[in-house]
Protein backbone atom coordinates (compact mmCIF):
# COMPACT_ATOMS: atom_id res chain seq x y z
CA UNK A 1 0.00 0.00 0.00
CA UNK A 2 1.40 3.46 -0.85
CA UNK A 3 2.64 5.32 2.19
CA UNK A 4 2.88 9.03 2.83
CA UNK A 5 5.69 9.57 0.36
CA UNK A 6 5.07 10.36 -3.29
CA UNK A 7 5.28 7.35 -5.56
CA UNK A 8 7.08 7.31 -8.88
CA UNK A 9 4.54 8.21 -11.52
CA UNK A 10 4.81 9.64 -15.05
CA UNK A 11 4.34 13.40 -14.81
CA UNK A 12 4.37 16.05 -17.47
CA UNK A 13 6.76 18.86 -16.52
CA UNK A 14 6.30 22.11 -18.42
CA UNK A 15 7.24 25.53 -17.03
CA UNK A 16 7.13 24.23 -13.46
CA UNK A 17 3.68 22.63 -13.84
CA UNK A 18 3.65 18.99 -12.78
CA UNK A 19 0.39 17.32 -13.69
CA UNK A 20 -0.17 13.59 -13.96
CA UNK A 21 -0.76 12.03 -17.35
CA UNK A 22 -4.38 11.38 -16.37
CA UNK A 23 -5.18 15.10 -16.73
CA UNK A 24 -2.86 16.23 -19.52
CA UNK A 25 -5.44 16.02 -22.30
CA UNK A 26 -7.71 18.46 -20.46
CA UNK A 27 -5.44 21.52 -20.43
CA UNK A 28 -2.55 23.21 -22.26
CA UNK A 29 0.37 25.25 -20.95
CA UNK A 30 0.92 28.65 -22.56
CA UNK A 31 3.61 31.07 -21.39
CA UNK A 32 3.80 29.36 -18.02
CA UNK A 33 0.04 29.43 -17.47
CA UNK A 34 -2.67 26.81 -17.75
CA UNK A 35 -5.27 27.25 -20.51
CA UNK A 36 -8.35 25.07 -20.77
CA UNK A 37 -10.25 25.15 -24.05
CA UNK A 38 -14.00 24.72 -24.26
CA UNK A 39 -13.45 21.41 -26.04
CA UNK A 40 -11.13 20.11 -23.32
CA UNK A 41 -13.42 21.24 -20.51
CA UNK A 42 -16.49 19.76 -22.17
CA UNK A 43 -14.72 16.46 -22.71
CA UNK A 44 -13.69 16.28 -19.04
CA UNK A 45 -17.22 17.12 -17.87
CA UNK A 46 -18.88 14.52 -20.08
CA UNK A 47 -16.35 11.70 -20.19
CA UNK A 48 -14.80 11.83 -16.71
CA UNK A 49 -17.47 13.40 -14.48
CA UNK A 50 -20.49 12.40 -16.62
CA UNK A 51 -21.71 15.95 -16.02
CA UNK A 52 -23.94 17.27 -18.80
CA UNK A 53 -24.64 20.72 -17.34
CA UNK A 54 -25.31 22.91 -20.42
CA UNK A 55 -22.83 25.48 -19.08
CA UNK A 56 -20.06 23.02 -19.95
CA UNK A 57 -21.15 22.44 -23.54
CA UNK A 58 -18.45 23.51 -25.96
CA UNK A 59 -20.78 25.91 -27.82
CA UNK A 60 -22.63 27.27 -24.76
CA UNK A 61 -23.06 31.07 -24.80
CA UNK A 62 -22.23 31.20 -21.08
CA UNK A 63 -19.66 28.40 -21.22
CA UNK A 64 -17.51 27.83 -18.15
CA UNK A 65 -14.86 25.30 -17.16
CA UNK A 66 -16.18 22.72 -14.66
CA UNK A 67 -15.18 23.42 -11.09
CA UNK A 68 -14.39 19.72 -10.77
CA UNK A 69 -11.60 20.08 -13.34
CA UNK A 70 -10.08 23.01 -11.43
CA UNK A 71 -10.36 20.99 -8.20
CA UNK A 72 -8.59 18.08 -9.91
CA UNK A 73 -5.72 20.27 -11.13
CA UNK A 74 -5.28 21.71 -7.63
CA UNK A 75 -4.98 18.28 -6.01
CA UNK A 76 -2.64 17.09 -8.73
CA UNK A 77 -0.31 20.10 -8.38
CA UNK A 78 -0.37 20.83 -4.64
CA UNK A 79 -1.26 17.43 -3.19
CA UNK A 80 -4.02 16.40 -0.82
CA UNK A 81 -4.11 18.26 2.51
CA UNK A 82 -5.86 17.04 5.63
CA UNK A 83 -8.16 20.07 5.59
CA UNK A 84 -9.09 21.82 2.33
CA UNK A 85 -11.59 24.50 1.39
CA UNK A 86 -12.19 25.64 -2.20
CA UNK A 87 -14.05 28.84 -3.12
CA UNK A 88 -15.00 29.21 -6.80
CA UNK A 89 -15.16 32.98 -7.18
CA UNK A 90 -15.29 33.33 -10.96
CA UNK A 91 -16.46 31.45 -14.04
CA UNK A 92 -13.48 30.41 -16.18
CA UNK A 93 -14.17 30.88 -19.87
CA UNK A 94 -12.57 29.32 -22.96
CA UNK A 95 -8.80 29.66 -23.07
CA UNK A 96 -8.43 31.91 -20.02
CA UNK A 97 -4.78 31.83 -18.91
CA UNK A 98 -4.69 30.65 -15.30
CA UNK A 99 -1.77 31.01 -12.91
CA UNK A 100 -1.41 28.16 -10.41
CA UNK A 101 1.48 29.61 -8.37
CA UNK A 102 4.28 27.45 -7.03
CA UNK A 103 3.52 27.78 -3.33
CA UNK A 104 3.61 25.93 -0.04
CA UNK A 105 1.35 28.51 1.63
CA UNK A 106 -1.91 27.62 3.33
CA UNK A 107 -3.78 30.16 1.16
CA UNK A 108 -3.39 29.99 -2.63
CA UNK A 109 -5.25 32.05 -5.25
CA UNK A 110 -5.61 30.91 -8.85
CA UNK A 111 -5.74 34.04 -11.01
CA UNK A 112 -5.59 35.17 -14.61
CA UNK A 113 -3.01 37.53 -16.13
CA UNK A 114 -5.06 40.56 -15.07
CA UNK A 115 -5.06 39.43 -11.45
CA UNK A 116 -8.68 38.32 -11.35
CA UNK A 117 -9.18 35.48 -8.87
CA UNK A 118 -11.13 32.44 -10.03
CA UNK A 119 -10.36 29.97 -7.27
CA UNK A 120 -9.28 30.40 -3.65
CA UNK A 121 -7.73 27.44 -1.83
CA UNK A 122 -7.33 27.24 1.93
CA UNK A 123 -5.53 24.22 3.34
CA UNK A 124 -3.91 23.00 6.53
CA UNK A 125 -2.46 19.88 8.08
CA UNK A 126 -0.50 17.00 6.65
CA UNK A 127 -0.02 16.84 2.86
CA UNK A 128 0.07 13.66 0.77
CA UNK A 129 1.38 13.65 -2.81
CA UNK A 130 0.75 9.98 -3.60
CA UNK A 131 -0.21 10.20 -7.27
CA UNK A 132 -2.19 6.94 -7.28
CA UNK A 133 -4.24 7.97 -4.24
CA UNK A 134 -4.91 11.45 -5.63
CA UNK A 135 -6.04 10.11 -9.00
CA UNK A 136 -8.36 7.60 -7.30
CA UNK A 137 -9.87 10.33 -5.13
CA UNK A 138 -10.29 12.68 -8.10
CA UNK A 139 -12.03 10.04 -10.18
CA UNK A 140 -14.41 9.01 -7.41
CA UNK A 141 -15.17 12.58 -6.37
CA UNK A 142 -15.96 13.85 -9.86
CA UNK A 143 -18.10 10.75 -10.54
CA UNK A 144 -20.03 11.50 -7.34
CA UNK A 145 -20.29 15.16 -8.33
CA UNK A 146 -21.56 14.31 -11.81
CA UNK A 147 -24.53 12.46 -10.32
CA UNK A 148 -25.75 15.53 -8.40
CA UNK A 149 -28.10 16.39 -11.26
CA UNK A 150 -30.72 15.10 -11.58
CA UNK A 151 -30.60 12.45 -8.86
CA UNK A 152 -29.94 14.76 -5.88
CA UNK A 153 -30.78 18.29 -6.97
CA UNK A 154 -34.20 17.63 -8.53
CA UNK A 155 -35.67 15.90 -5.42
CA UNK A 156 -34.38 18.83 -3.31
CA UNK A 157 -36.08 21.33 -5.63
CA UNK A 158 -39.31 19.33 -5.63
CA UNK A 159 -39.31 19.19 -1.84
CA UNK A 160 -38.98 22.99 -1.68
CA UNK A 161 -41.52 23.41 -4.52
CA UNK A 162 -39.16 25.55 -6.61
CA UNK A 163 -37.31 25.04 -9.89
CA UNK A 164 -34.80 26.87 -12.06
CA UNK A 165 -35.60 28.37 -15.46
CA UNK A 166 -35.35 25.31 -17.70
CA UNK A 167 -34.72 27.55 -20.73
CA UNK A 168 -31.70 29.13 -19.05
CA UNK A 169 -30.63 26.82 -16.23
CA UNK A 170 -28.02 28.32 -13.95
CA UNK A 171 -26.51 26.01 -11.33
CA UNK A 172 -23.11 27.19 -10.09
CA UNK A 173 -20.47 25.39 -8.03
CA UNK A 174 -19.72 27.82 -5.18
CA UNK A 175 -17.43 25.95 -2.82
CA UNK A 176 -16.26 22.60 -1.48
CA UNK A 177 -14.91 21.63 1.92
CA UNK A 178 -12.93 18.45 2.61
CA UNK A 179 -11.73 17.10 5.97
CA UNK A 180 -9.73 13.90 6.37
CA UNK A 181 -9.44 11.91 9.59
CA UNK A 182 -6.34 10.03 8.46
CA UNK A 183 -3.97 10.23 5.50
CA UNK A 184 -2.77 6.66 5.00
CA UNK A 185 -5.90 5.30 3.34
CA UNK A 186 -6.18 3.83 -0.16
CA UNK A 187 -8.92 3.08 -2.71
CA UNK A 188 -11.21 5.88 -1.46
CA UNK A 189 -14.94 5.60 -2.06
CA UNK A 190 -17.38 8.47 -1.69
CA UNK A 191 -20.86 7.97 -0.26
CA UNK A 192 -23.65 10.53 -0.33
CA UNK A 193 -25.06 11.74 2.98
CA UNK A 194 -28.37 13.58 3.53
CA UNK A 195 -28.37 16.77 1.42
CA UNK A 196 -30.23 19.97 2.25
CA UNK A 197 -31.41 23.11 0.47
CA UNK A 198 -32.04 26.65 1.69
CA UNK A 199 -34.32 28.86 -0.44
CA UNK A 200 -34.17 32.64 -0.33
CA UNK A 201 -36.46 34.27 -2.89
CA UNK A 202 -35.29 33.48 -6.42
CA UNK A 203 -32.08 31.88 -5.22
CA UNK A 204 -31.30 28.64 -3.41
CA UNK A 205 -28.22 27.10 -1.88
CA UNK A 206 -27.81 23.33 -1.94
CA UNK A 207 -25.48 21.54 0.46
CA UNK A 208 -24.43 18.12 -0.82
CA UNK A 209 -22.76 16.17 1.99
CA UNK A 210 -20.57 13.11 1.55
CA UNK A 211 -18.22 10.86 3.43
CA UNK A 212 -15.07 9.11 2.21
CA UNK A 213 -14.59 5.47 3.09
CA UNK A 214 -11.69 3.04 2.86
CA UNK A 215 -13.34 -0.34 3.04
CA UNK A 216 -15.91 0.11 5.80
CA UNK A 217 -13.96 2.80 7.68
CA UNK A 218 -14.93 6.46 7.32
CA UNK A 219 -11.67 8.31 6.67
CA UNK A 220 -13.05 11.74 5.78
CA UNK A 221 -16.06 13.88 4.99
CA UNK A 222 -17.03 17.02 3.17
CA UNK A 223 -19.71 18.93 1.35
CA UNK A 224 -20.23 20.66 -1.94
CA UNK A 225 -22.14 23.96 -2.05
CA UNK A 226 -24.19 24.86 -5.13
CA UNK A 227 -26.02 28.07 -5.99
CA UNK A 228 -29.25 27.78 -7.99
CA UNK A 229 -30.56 31.01 -9.52
CA UNK A 230 -33.70 32.19 -11.32
CA UNK A 231 -36.11 30.18 -9.19
CA UNK A 232 -39.82 29.90 -9.92
CA UNK A 233 -42.70 27.77 -8.73
CA UNK A 234 -42.11 24.06 -9.26
CA UNK A 235 -43.89 22.45 -12.22
CA UNK A 236 -43.51 18.69 -12.35
CA UNK A 237 -44.13 18.10 -16.07
CA UNK A 238 -41.69 20.71 -17.49
CA UNK A 239 -39.02 19.65 -14.99
CA UNK A 240 -39.50 15.98 -15.86
CA UNK A 241 -39.26 16.80 -19.56
CA UNK A 242 -36.01 18.67 -18.89
CA UNK A 243 -34.63 15.71 -16.91
CA UNK A 244 -35.68 13.25 -19.62
CA UNK A 245 -33.93 15.32 -22.30
CA UNK A 246 -30.83 15.67 -20.10
CA UNK A 247 -30.61 11.92 -19.48
CA UNK A 248 -31.28 11.10 -23.14
CA UNK A 249 -28.42 13.39 -24.17
CA UNK A 250 -26.16 11.88 -21.50
CA UNK A 251 -26.94 8.26 -22.37
CA UNK A 252 -26.70 8.96 -26.10
CA UNK A 253 -23.26 10.58 -25.74
CA UNK A 254 -21.89 7.87 -23.47
CA UNK A 255 -23.40 5.14 -25.66
CA UNK A 256 -21.68 6.55 -28.74
CA UNK A 257 -18.46 6.85 -26.77
CA UNK A 258 -18.65 3.19 -25.73
CA UNK A 259 -19.32 2.08 -29.33
CA UNK A 260 -16.37 4.11 -30.58
CA UNK A 261 -14.04 2.44 -28.09
CA UNK A 262 -14.95 -1.10 -29.18
Broad CATH class: Alpha Beta
Rg over CA atoms, rounded to whole Å, is: 18 Å
Distance between the termini: 33 Å
Architecture (CATH level 2) name:
Roll
Instruction: Indicate the CATH topology.
Output: Thiol Ester Dehydrase, Chain A
Apparent shape: globular
Series of H and E elements? EEEEHHEEEEHHHEEEEEEEH
* Percent of sequence in beta strands: 25-35%
Q: What is the tally of helical segments?
A: 6
The SS-based structural class is alpha+beta
Please mark out the parts with pLDDT under 50 across 5 or more consecutive residues, or reply none: 1-18
Tally of separate domains: 1
Q: Could you tell me the mean pLDDT?
A: 90
Largest sheet: 8 strands, antiparallel
Helical content stands at 25-40%
Work out the number of β strands.
15
Notable characteristics:
262 residues; alpha+beta; Thiol Ester Dehydrase, Chain A; 15 strands; 29% helix
Could you explain the architecture of this structure?
The protein has 262 residues and is an alpha+beta fold. It has a single domain (11-261), classed as Thiol Ester Dehydrase, Chain A (Roll). The chain is built from 6 helices and 15 strands. It has helices spanning 38-47, 67-78, 131-146, 148-151, 153-160, 236-261, and strands at residues 11-14, 17-20, 28-30, 33-35, 80-88, 97-98, 107-111, 117-128, 162-163, 171-180, 189-192, 196-200, 203-214, 217-229, 232-233. Helix 2 (67-78) packs antiparallel against helix 3 (131-146). The radius of gyration is 18 Å and the shape is globular. The two termini are 33 Å apart. The model is unreliable at 1-18 (pLDDT under 50).
